[in-house]
Amino acid sequence: MHSFAPEIMLITLLAVVVVSDTLADRLKVPSVFLLLIGSYLVYQMFPAAVPLDLRAHFDTVILLCIPLIFMGDALHLHFKDVRQFGFEIFYLAVFAVALSIAAGASLYQLELFAPLSLGGYVALFAINMATDAVSVQSVLSRFEGISHDLKVLIEGESLGNDATAVIAFFFVGLPWMLSGSIDPVAASFDAVRVFAVSLGLGVAMGFGFYLLMKLVEHQRGEFFIFVVEGYAAYVLGEEMHVSGILTLIAAIIATKAWIDADIRRSGERDARKTKSYRLQQLYHQLRFGGYHATTEQRLEYIFEMAKEFGYLATVMIFFTLAEIVDYEQLWYYRYEILAMFAATTMIRALSMAKFALFGHRFNLIKPVGFEGWFILTFSGMKGALSIILVHMIPDSFAHKALFESVTVGVVMLSIFGYGVTLWGYFVLKSRRASAALQTHKR
Fold first, then answer.
1. CA torsion sign, 190 to 384 to 393 to 57?
2. Is 152:76 a contact under the CB 8 Å cutoff?
3. Spatial distance between the Cα atoms of 402 and 318, rounded to a whole number of angstroms
4. What span, in angstroms and rounded, lies between the C-alpha atoms of 44 and 79?
5. CA gap 166, 386 in Å, rounded
6. Per-residue DSSP letters for 114-144?
7. Which residue did the predictor score with more confidence, 431 or 191?
8. Taking the CB of residue 213, how many other CB atoms lie within 10 A of it?
9. What's the helix, strand, coil split of the chain in %, to 5?
10. Which contiguous run of DSSP H or E holds residue 321?
11. What integer pLDDT is reported at residue 274 of this predicted model?
């Protein structure tokens, strides 16, 4: 008899999304809270609604979800913002993450996680420093008044942070933890190689898919080209033993950058015919500039569709998280979970303090003030990527239960702890602004 498990699973996913969004709008709360709670309740109370063993097929779930999660976030980030805030994003996404992982590993001397080696500390902190852009956007999108500059920092950090954490985990922490030793010089060069090759490969693929999009003239086809690009970049990056996630992010941003350049030029007047103009014309011809990849109106459709597909992928990961949750294990490792949550929060707060305390002293660093520091600190919610990385640890590893419990605990604490903190802050700020407006009217 035919099994309808895939159809039932799809119905469940869509139902959880619809119900969560509806309740979130009615209750004025971030939908990510209800998605996480709803996924767990459905899994526990209505097991027939989740007929697929997601944990047994976790590798398949990962390959399906990762490109969809990161594609939407990469499309939302404009290249002009990356160029304008490049130093800040590089600091947040690369330098600050590397320092944070190193700071976490230095706690090895305190024996917070006694069974682990120094390599284990590096791997554990790499996993738990990876942020979740979908969860962050779910909270921040509920509230107005966040400056564009701050949104760019948060979006850029969430994307780059994940790529850096993945490289640190796979090319430094994991091999060090499993082998017991590592050559730091070789590991550093390997990490730099991975970073450079992933970026170069992504940019090259981005240009190729940008040219491909010129052959299509309808929004649905253009959206599907972006989907194919995301999957192709991720798979090719992984097959070449570099970072598939960084390759994907670079490819999508590169394609979007050339599309934005086309749209911008189409609205400008013709430049004067100088030597510079002739060079621009040659460049224009090489890019088949007479054919547009897409339009602003069609891009809006692509953004919305990418966001919805990423949303569904995140819910799928949340259902997998519901299968991983073991309350007995969480209680057994409760002190380790709290220690990791406190350590990662403190490290993040210190790394973000640069923008509040020293931003005015450096032209390249954007000063954000206390409010910006507060938002940047508590926008570091963990999520899908942390769950994915911890699954990549071999089952034969003696302390995998510790890694799983600590990571699941930190993901849940960060989503609800950070999320509720941000939500409460914005609600209070909104009420104060409303009260001040009423007082002014009187």
1. negative
2. no
3. 20
4. 43
5. 9
6. TT--HHHHHHHHHHHT---HHHHHHHHTT--
7. 191
8. 22
9. 80, 0, 20
10. helix 296-324
11. 45
What 3-state DSSP class applies to 75?
helix
Helix (H) or strand (E) holding 9: helix 5-27
DSSP conformation letters of 167-212 = HHIIIIIHHHHHHS---HHHHHHHHHHHHHHHHHHHHHHHHHHHHH
Query: Roughly how many angstroms between the first and final C-alpha of the chain, as a whole number?
Result: 72
Per-residue pLDDT at 86:
79
> 322 and 39 in contact (C-beta within 8 Å)?
yes
d(CA 87, CA 100): 18
Q: Backbone dihedral region of 145: left (phi > 0), alpha (psi from -120 to 50 degrees) or beta? A: left
| CATH class of the domain comprising 53-441 | mainly alpha
Kindly tell me if the per-residue pLDDT of 251 is higher than 90.
yes
| DSSP summary character for residue 359 | G
* Least trusted range by pLDDT, from 6-10, 91-95, 300-304, 363-367: 363-367
Q: Where are the domains of the chain?
A: 53-441
pLDDT in tens, 14-41: 898 889 889 888 887 778 888 888 888 8
Neighbours of 363 (CB within 10 A): 8
Amino acid at 259: I
CB 126 within 8 A of CB 134: no
Using a 10 angstrom Cβ sphere, with 0-12 exposed, 13-18 middle and 19 or more buried, the burial of residue 223 is: buried
Residue 420 pLDDT more than 80?
Answer: yes
Which residue would you say has higher pLDDT here, 435 or 80?
80
For residue 270, which phi and psi values (nearest 5 degrees)?
-60, 135
- Are 135 and 378 spatial neighbours (Cβ–Cβ below 8 Å)? no
pLDDT for 409 equals 93
In angstroms, the CA 53 to CA 337 distance is 27
Residues 275-297 pLDDT 10s: 455 555 555 555 555 566 677 78
Helix, strand or coil, per DSSP, at residue 216 = coil
Do the beta carbons of residue 13 and residue 316 sit within 8 Å?
yes
How many CB atoms are located within 10 Å of the residue 269 CB? 5
What is the residue-averaged pLDDT of the chain?
Answer: 82
